[in-house]
Amino acid sequence: MPFSTRTNDLSERLVNGASVNDVDAQASEISIVFIVGESRAEILSPALDQLRKMPRFRHVPIAVVHDPGLDVEASVAGHGASLVESASSLNQDRNEAACDWLERSGTRYGTIATLPRLRKLKSWSRQVLHEVETLRRLPLNGSTPLMVWTDHGTKLSVARYVDRTLSGGEVRRGSLLADFLGRLALCAARPWLDALDPREGDVEIVGFLSAAFSPEMSEPPWRYRLALTGPSGDVARSGPVPLTPRVGNRGTVQWEGLTTRLALDGVGTGHWRFVVELDTEVPELRLRRNLQPRIGALISARTVGMHAAADDAPGRTRTTTVRYLLHTVGDGTAAFLTTQRGSGLRARLQWAVMLLKKDAGFIARGPGDRRMRWLRLLRLLTRPFFAGREIWLIGERKDTAQDNGVHLFRHLRESSARHSAYYVIDRSSPQYGRVAPYGHVVAHSSWRHQLLLLHAVVLANAYSIGYLVPDTWDVKDYTRHIVWRVGALRVYLKHGVHLSPNAVKRGATGYDVCLTVMPGETEALRATSGYDRQLVQAGMPRYDALTPTPASRTILFMPTWRNYLVTTALKGAQDGEISYEGSAYQRFMSGLLESRRLHEMLEKHDYRLTFLPHYNMASRFEGATVAGDRIEIADADNVAFQDLIRGCDAFVTDYSSVHFDVAYLGTPIVYARFDEEDFESKHSSPTWFDYERDGFGPVVRTLDDTLDAVESLLERDCRPYPLYTARIDAAFPQRDQQNCARTVAAIEERIPTRPR
């Protein structure tokens, strides 16, 4: 726990009811704010009764922050507690109300907590008193109470408190108040490890403090240190590390980043734990916490070897090899590093033996799913059969073969005998037949699939590597117990240009190769995602098949989906936050498909319109009404969307990144941004791509304007506009059929060589 729950003699006597003369005199020093939701309302009265029976809390000011409409007045009657109604049931409003009351309480110390369960109330009260006694020894005074953290405290209340304190006046670097705020933040937040990178014998730690700070908060004046520690103490410590700006998933910039370089020159062979601690000289404020690995750090973990100066080489003229392996144990709340320093055959054999011991220990008594232990054993037993083979597992969604995955697979099967490439797809998929002629097609979740995954050197997917995990495997157990042992290179082939790069985070995805298409996209990802050297501007494999076809007199309408209209990213999803029926999305789609004006202009100019719904919305259009036979709804299971793209003479979309594919071909585009405000506030995050400035066609926002734009194209027989042709030429540095070749070269360059 961030704070010790051990009590000193005074707090123990006070809680247990011993007679202490100054109990009442000190009561005004502490104020308490409980945040009570509906789930804890029924225990509020007995909790207050129990608390008031403790001498130290008999007369302390107490406030109860409750949700609107939650009747708790009877519960606080006779307990001397104030009621504060939150503006809403949202956590930010609850904590804002709690901080407002605490600020006005006039006490020296204050604590904000969710109401503890009755059996936890006494230990919580001890923790409060212990922390108050600790703070009392410090010469800290201010116009607002000093916040006391407990295990039932809330991260949001601490974030609000820190923000208000910093904005209330200058808090100097190195001051006692700065260190107090830094400790408070470290108590409430969760320290995360996003990634670990080799750097010439050292490691670069890329992490962050999940503190929920306001984007408007001032720069934090305190510092932290990161360290590797073991049973005998620290073996490596960083210098003071400031919090740096970090871009979140929604594009907000917060002071949360924790990045530093940790020297390994004094670290020998052993097993160590990553910790973060407050950089302070004040003993009462010293605090360290484990650095917890994010899934992206674990799924990209493998044995890493790098050259470093030998310990006995003054001037760094002789080198040795440093090996390390990032992993976790138990409940996964701490990041560990196994290290070795040494060169030559003996060192390599020692490392291999260490890995085998880890295998044996896990197989014999490892935690988690028994299946994982059997899989580790199966991997050891079948290793000789895969010696010298370079297994590449490639896929998309488990039931699709139409995107970058299948295009890369086809390239490998037709042009390279060096790679043992396999495509993973559900045997019952309607698209199975598209990829079957190339051979090496593996049924998803079959025993063959599982065996190949245990020995794969490369995992490449157009959507998520998670689609390559067999259905029978527990993903969490696989991440903790199998991934690091296999050490396969993880390649994100992606399924479109990233318009909202904030949604791509290295700590959540852990890719070794992430493809990009154009400079604007690459720089946007580099600035926000945590990826850098992993970004490869190679284009997308499916672009190799983007060759023009004869005019088909067809307009393709291909909108994207809305995550607030469906509950999950799956076909047949039910209503989400907003009902689909009656939504702006539904009204526009129905209006266009049923438009008599559209049908008449198509008939007049002898064109057809094909509507291809997004995968996640397709069920909404089964049996949909259309205005006439010149408008048809395509089924993605029965037609390759790339054939539709290549064959269309004009393209209409809302925000789909497929418009980049269309632009690659030079086909005219119309952007129908009919629900711009809803889409940008509820679905997307900020984008580097400005449709008005960078787009490859006119931008319209109503159904009538969309029909006008389409009619204008039809009247010019869908010839491109010169303005947009110039933008396309400037946007794509490479417009050729070498995208697959560049992708393969980038992967081969990064395939790790490691002890297995």
From TrEMBL:
Q: Name one GO molecular function term.
A: CDP-glycerol glycerophosphotransferase activity
Which InterPro entries does UniProt cross-reference here? Glycerophosphate_synth, TagF_C, Teichoic_Acid_Biosynth
Q: Which GO terms describe its cellular component?
A: membrane
Give the Gene3D superfamilies listed for this entry. Answer: 3.40.50.12580
Q: Can you tell which superkingdom this protein's organism belongs to?
A: Bacteria
Query: From which residue to which does the signal peptide run?
Result: none
Short name of any one Pfam family annotated for the protein: Glyphos_transf
Q: What is this protein called?
A: CDP-glycerol glycerophosphotransferase family protein
Q: What is the organism lineage in this UniProt record? A: Bacteria, Bacillati, Actinomycetota, Actinomycetes, Micrococcales
